[in-house]
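Help wanted!
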Amino acid sequence: AQTVTQSQPEMSVQEAETVTLSCTYDTSESDYYLFWYKQPPSRQMILVIRQEAYKQQNATENRFSVNFQKAAKSFSLKISDSQLGDAAMYFCAYRSGWGAQKLVFGQGTRLTINP
Amino acid sequence: NAGVTQTPKFRILKIGQSMTLQCTQDMNHNYMYWYRQDPGMGLKLIYYSVGAGITDKGEVPNGYNVSRSTTEDFPLRLELAAPSQTSVYFCASSSGQGGYEQYFGPGTRLTVT
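Answered by r_m:
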Protein backbone atom coordinates (compact mmCIF):
# COMPACT_ATOMS: atom_id res chain seq x y z
CA ALA A 1 0.00 0.00 0.00
CA GLN A 2 1.11 3.52 -0.67
CA THR A 3 2.05 5.81 2.20
CA VAL A 4 2.64 9.55 2.44
CA THR A 5 4.71 11.12 5.19
CA GLN A 6 4.93 14.77 6.18
CA SER A 7 7.62 15.08 8.83
CA GLN A 8 6.96 18.71 9.79
CA PRO A 9 3.85 19.03 11.98
CA GLU A 10 4.27 22.82 12.13
CA MET A 11 6.19 25.45 10.21
CA SER A 12 6.31 29.22 10.47
CA VAL A 13 7.62 31.90 8.17
CA GLN A 14 7.83 35.67 8.07
CA GLU A 15 5.49 37.42 5.68
CA ALA A 16 7.12 37.89 2.23
CA GLU A 17 9.71 35.19 2.89
CA THR A 18 9.98 31.73 1.31
CA VAL A 19 9.10 28.46 3.03
CA THR A 20 9.42 24.83 1.96
CA LEU A 21 7.15 22.05 3.19
CA SER A 22 8.44 18.48 2.94
CA CYS A 23 6.69 15.31 1.80
CA THR A 24 7.94 11.82 1.10
CA TYR A 25 5.94 8.91 -0.26
CA ASP A 26 6.33 5.22 -0.81
CA THR A 27 5.03 3.35 -3.84
CA SER A 28 6.00 0.63 -6.25
CA GLU A 29 3.87 2.09 -9.02
CA SER A 30 5.26 4.00 -11.98
CA ASP A 31 2.08 5.86 -12.94
CA TYR A 32 0.82 8.22 -10.26
CA TYR A 33 0.01 11.80 -9.37
CA LEU A 34 1.01 13.93 -6.42
CA PHE A 35 -0.94 16.84 -4.99
CA TRP A 36 -0.69 19.56 -2.39
CA TYR A 37 -3.96 20.62 -0.78
CA LYS A 38 -4.51 23.65 1.43
CA GLN A 39 -7.05 23.55 4.28
CA PRO A 40 -7.75 26.95 5.85
CA PRO A 41 -9.77 27.30 9.08
CA SER A 42 -12.95 27.11 6.98
CA ARG A 43 -12.11 23.38 6.51
CA GLN A 44 -12.51 23.59 2.73
CA MET A 45 -9.97 21.45 0.86
CA ILE A 46 -8.34 23.57 -1.87
CA LEU A 47 -6.04 22.12 -4.51
CA VAL A 48 -2.79 24.08 -4.62
CA ILE A 49 -0.74 22.19 -7.17
CA ARG A 50 -0.47 18.81 -8.90
CA GLN A 51 2.43 16.87 -10.39
CA GLU A 52 2.28 13.99 -12.84
CA ALA A 53 4.96 11.39 -12.12
CA TYR A 54 5.83 10.99 -15.79
CA LYS A 55 6.71 14.67 -16.11
CA GLN A 56 10.28 15.61 -15.24
CA GLN A 57 9.50 19.31 -15.10
CA ASN A 58 8.47 20.58 -11.69
CA ALA A 59 4.96 22.06 -11.54
CA THR A 60 4.50 25.76 -10.80
CA GLU A 61 1.39 27.77 -9.95
CA ASN A 62 2.13 31.44 -9.36
CA ARG A 63 3.92 31.64 -5.97
CA PHE A 64 3.72 27.88 -5.44
CA SER A 65 6.18 25.42 -6.89
CA VAL A 66 7.26 21.88 -6.19
CA ASN A 67 10.56 20.03 -6.10
CA PHE A 68 9.73 16.55 -7.38
CA GLN A 69 12.54 14.05 -6.85
CA LYS A 70 11.16 10.81 -8.26
CA ALA A 71 14.07 8.55 -7.38
CA ALA A 72 14.11 9.83 -3.81
CA LYS A 73 10.28 9.74 -3.65
CA SER A 74 10.24 13.29 -2.40
CA PHE A 75 7.71 16.01 -3.23
CA SER A 76 8.26 19.32 -1.45
CA LEU A 77 6.19 22.50 -1.78
CA LYS A 78 7.84 25.89 -1.95
CA ILE A 79 5.80 28.98 -1.20
CA SER A 80 7.45 32.23 -2.30
CA ASP A 81 6.58 35.70 -1.04
CA SER A 82 4.45 34.25 1.76
CA GLN A 83 1.20 36.06 2.46
CA LEU A 84 -1.03 36.08 5.52
CA GLY A 85 -3.68 34.24 3.51
CA ASP A 86 -1.30 31.30 3.06
CA ALA A 87 -1.75 30.36 6.72
CA ALA A 88 -3.43 26.94 6.75
CA MET A 89 -2.91 23.20 7.05
CA TYR A 90 -1.16 21.78 4.01
CA PHE A 91 -1.62 18.17 2.98
CA CYS A 92 0.46 16.18 0.56
CA ALA A 93 -1.50 13.47 -1.26
CA TYR A 94 -0.77 10.56 -3.58
CA ARG A 95 -3.06 9.09 -6.19
CA SER A 96 -2.49 6.04 -8.35
CA GLY A 97 -2.77 6.58 -12.08
CA TRP A 98 -5.14 3.66 -12.48
CA GLY A 99 -8.12 2.10 -10.74
CA ALA A 100 -10.46 4.15 -8.55
CA GLN A 101 -7.89 6.93 -8.10
CA LYS A 102 -8.21 7.13 -4.35
CA LEU A 103 -6.22 9.80 -2.56
CA VAL A 104 -3.76 8.86 0.19
CA PHE A 105 -3.00 11.82 2.44
CA GLY A 106 -0.10 12.72 4.68
CA GLN A 107 -0.62 13.90 8.23
CA GLY A 108 -0.43 17.57 7.33
CA THR A 109 1.77 20.57 8.15
CA ARG A 110 0.34 23.61 9.91
CA LEU A 111 1.82 26.76 8.36
CA THR A 112 1.84 30.00 10.32
CA ILE A 113 2.68 33.32 8.69
CA ASN A 114 4.22 35.91 10.99
CA PRO A 115 3.47 39.54 10.04
CA ASN B 1 -22.82 25.52 -10.22
CA ALA B 2 -22.96 24.20 -6.66
CA GLY B 3 -20.20 21.55 -7.01
CA VAL B 4 -20.25 19.12 -4.08
CA THR B 5 -22.76 19.80 -1.31
CA GLN B 6 -23.01 18.08 2.06
CA THR B 7 -25.69 18.13 4.72
CA PRO B 8 -25.77 18.66 7.62
CA LYS B 9 -22.82 20.94 8.44
CA PHE B 10 -22.80 19.94 12.10
CA ARG B 11 -24.41 17.16 14.09
CA ILE B 12 -24.25 15.79 17.60
CA LEU B 13 -25.25 12.15 18.08
CA LYS B 14 -25.68 10.07 21.16
CA ILE B 15 -23.90 6.72 21.37
CA GLY B 16 -25.93 4.06 19.58
CA GLN B 17 -27.90 6.46 17.38
CA SER B 18 -27.82 6.25 13.60
CA MET B 19 -27.75 8.91 10.92
CA THR B 20 -27.14 9.51 7.23
CA LEU B 21 -24.74 12.10 5.88
CA GLN B 22 -25.90 13.40 2.55
CA CYS B 23 -23.64 14.19 -0.41
CA THR B 24 -24.70 15.50 -3.82
CA GLN B 25 -22.65 16.63 -6.80
CA ASP B 26 -23.88 18.39 -9.93
CA MET B 27 -20.82 17.87 -12.14
CA ASN B 28 -21.92 14.51 -13.56
CA HIS B 29 -18.86 12.85 -12.02
CA ASN B 30 -18.75 9.08 -11.97
CA TYR B 31 -16.30 8.80 -9.07
CA MET B 32 -17.32 9.74 -5.55
CA TYR B 33 -15.57 9.32 -2.21
CA TRP B 34 -16.11 9.62 1.52
CA TYR B 35 -13.19 10.59 3.76
CA ARG B 36 -12.92 11.24 7.47
CA GLN B 37 -10.51 13.62 9.12
CA ASP B 38 -9.69 13.12 12.78
CA PRO B 39 -8.29 16.09 14.74
CA GLY B 40 -4.77 17.03 13.62
CA MET B 41 -4.66 14.27 11.03
CA GLY B 42 -4.94 13.81 7.30
CA LEU B 43 -7.99 12.44 5.52
CA LYS B 44 -8.63 8.72 5.39
CA LEU B 45 -10.84 7.00 2.82
CA ILE B 46 -13.99 5.33 4.15
CA TYR B 47 -15.83 4.23 1.00
CA TYR B 48 -15.79 5.08 -2.66
CA SER B 49 -17.88 4.55 -5.78
CA VAL B 50 -16.90 4.45 -9.44
CA GLY B 51 -20.45 4.73 -10.71
CA ALA B 52 -24.10 4.24 -9.87
CA GLY B 53 -24.62 0.84 -8.27
CA ILE B 54 -20.89 0.26 -7.62
CA THR B 55 -19.30 0.85 -4.22
CA ASP B 56 -16.23 -0.46 -2.44
CA LYS B 57 -14.47 -0.18 0.90
CA GLY B 58 -11.63 2.17 1.60
CA GLU B 59 -9.11 2.19 4.43
CA VAL B 60 -11.53 2.67 7.38
CA PRO B 61 -14.99 1.27 6.45
CA ASN B 62 -16.03 -0.31 9.77
CA GLY B 63 -19.20 1.19 11.22
CA TYR B 64 -20.32 2.76 7.95
CA ASN B 65 -22.40 1.87 4.92
CA VAL B 66 -22.95 3.54 1.58
CA SER B 67 -25.19 3.29 -1.45
CA ARG B 68 -25.07 4.85 -4.90
CA SER B 69 -28.42 4.67 -6.66
CA THR B 70 -27.83 7.78 -8.82
CA THR B 71 -24.80 9.50 -10.30
CA GLU B 72 -25.48 12.62 -8.22
CA ASP B 73 -25.94 11.22 -4.71
CA PHE B 74 -23.64 9.22 -2.42
CA PRO B 75 -25.03 9.04 1.14
CA LEU B 76 -22.98 7.70 4.05
CA ARG B 77 -24.84 5.81 6.75
CA LEU B 78 -23.58 5.53 10.33
CA GLU B 79 -25.13 2.68 12.28
CA LEU B 80 -24.82 2.51 16.08
CA ALA B 81 -22.67 5.61 16.45
CA ALA B 82 -19.58 5.34 18.68
CA PRO B 83 -17.30 8.05 20.13
CA SER B 84 -14.54 6.83 17.77
CA GLN B 85 -16.65 8.14 14.89
CA THR B 86 -16.32 11.72 16.11
CA SER B 87 -14.65 13.36 13.14
CA VAL B 88 -15.08 15.67 10.18
CA TYR B 89 -16.47 13.91 7.14
CA PHE B 90 -15.71 15.01 3.61
CA CYS B 91 -17.38 13.91 0.41
CA ALA B 92 -15.51 14.33 -2.87
CA SER B 93 -16.09 13.65 -6.54
CA SER B 94 -13.96 13.29 -9.64
CA SER B 95 -14.41 12.71 -13.33
CA GLY B 96 -11.98 9.82 -12.89
CA GLN B 97 -9.90 10.73 -15.89
CA GLY B 98 -6.17 11.32 -15.91
CA GLY B 99 -4.90 13.91 -13.47
CA TYR B 100 -8.22 15.59 -12.85
CA GLU B 101 -8.62 16.72 -9.29
CA GLN B 102 -11.09 15.58 -6.70
CA TYR B 103 -13.57 18.27 -5.74
CA PHE B 104 -14.40 18.33 -2.05
CA GLY B 105 -17.55 19.31 -0.22
CA PRO B 106 -17.41 21.66 2.80
CA GLY B 107 -17.45 18.82 5.33
CA THR B 108 -19.72 17.67 8.15
CA ARG B 109 -18.49 17.94 11.72
CA LEU B 110 -19.91 15.01 13.71
CA THR B 111 -19.63 14.59 17.46
CA VAL B 112 -20.71 11.39 19.18
CA THR B 113 -21.19 11.64 22.95
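OP: Thanks! One thing I noticed: The two ends of chain A are 41 Å apart (CA to CA).
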